[in-house]
Amino acid sequence: MKSYPITLKEFGRKGILIEWPNEVEEAILDDIIRFKSILEEELNDNIELVPAYNSIAIISNNGDFEFEKLKKELLQLYKTNKATLITQRTLWKLPVCYDAEFGIDLEEVAFNLKMTSSELIEIHSSNEYRVFGIGFLPGFMYLGGLPKHIETKRKETPRLKVAKGAVGLAGKQTGIYPQESPGGWNIIGNCPIPIFNANAEKPCFVSVGDKIKFESITRAEYELHKIEGEVGIYKPEKILLDA
């Protein structure tokens, strides 16, 4: 597996940020996931690891870090441990209703892209997206791999309120708002099932490195899945992929 010029810097008194080149590439994400698995084996249980597009944050849940000492150890570990990551990736199929009531920016985005709303829905729902990071809001997935011909600028004026489950486009990314919040993404649909549950053993069932595929559903199917999600009986389709 390819190595990258990583840098380390202090992230408060109890954190260290390891950064990879500032590029959105699956190879970089794979290297981040590989090194995260190594750190999970090498570091103690009082450490929290938070991967993102181009970084891993190491957070101590105990005492402060000795930055210079740990920096040297981490760089050496990255340099010498070239074990290939063998992991099981998961593809999650998530329902999305693109009705006009939910896709409040759908027609405008399609017009700007010089295509019909149906064409935009077809392209968006036929692609698979990689989960490059989870953040901003608990359970908010940053999904890379948006086809270039539907890349869309963020809205110039963010909304003060975006609905829970809203599916949006922004730049080279797509994603789902796991709860109501302000936001500047272009909203093209809504996913009726909860993405984040603070009371669950694993609050967000999706992990960094997984893949997402959206499936277009009718309004009637949306209402059914919403009820199923609220009572906890909806199980998103899960497909195990080759490593």
From TrEMBL:
<dbReference type="Pfam" id="PF02682">
    <property type="entry name" value="CT_C_D"/>
</dbReference>
<keyword id="KW-0378">Hydrolase</keyword>
<dbReference type="InterPro" id="IPR029000">
    <property type="entry name" value="Cyclophilin-like_dom_sf"/>
</dbReference>
<dbReference type="GO" id="GO:0017168">
    <property type="term" value="F:5-oxoprolinase (ATP-hydrolyzing) activity"/>
</dbReference>
<keyword id="KW-0547">Nucleotide-binding</keyword>
<feature type="domain" description="Carboxyltransferase">
    <location>
        <begin position="6"/>
        <end position="206"/>
    </location>
</feature>
<protein>
    <submittedName>
        <fullName>5-oxoprolinase subunit PxpB</fullName>
        <ecNumber>3.5.2.9</ecNumber>
    </submittedName>
</protein>
<keyword id="KW-0067">ATP-binding</keyword>
<dbReference type="InterPro" id="IPR010016">
    <property type="entry name" value="PxpB"/>
</dbReference>
<dbReference type="InterPro" id="IPR003833">
    <property type="entry name" value="CT_C_D"/>
</dbReference>
